[in-house]
Specification:
The chain is mainly α. The protein is about 80% helix and about 0% strand.
């Protein structure tokens, strides 16, 4: 499979994973570390926000990387003859 198609599939995967992860992280952070929630001590609120941002950035990138690598592996096994 050529590189532009691999890039498109990886981008679609990134966006497909980004949307639900971002929504889940948003609601989790608002619930745990929001201004009126008071479910966590104030000292832990920045940690929760940082972990939420980390999840939003890392999880979709990891999924896109898995797709990118799987497509490359499939390329090597499609030999005719």
């Amino acid at each position: 499979m050529n590189t532009p198609l691999r890039l498109i599939l990886a981008l679609v995967t990134y966006l497909g994973v980004f949307v639900p992860v971002a929504a889940a992280a948003f609601f989790a952070v608002i619930l745990l570390a929001g201004p009126h929630a008071d479910l966590l001590p104030r000292a832990l609120q920045p940690v929760v926000i940082l972990l939420g941002w980390l999840a939003v950035l890392v999880v979709p990138a990891w999924a896109a990387r898995v797709v990118w690598r799987r497509i490359r592996e499939k390329e090597g096994t499609n030999h005719a003859g």
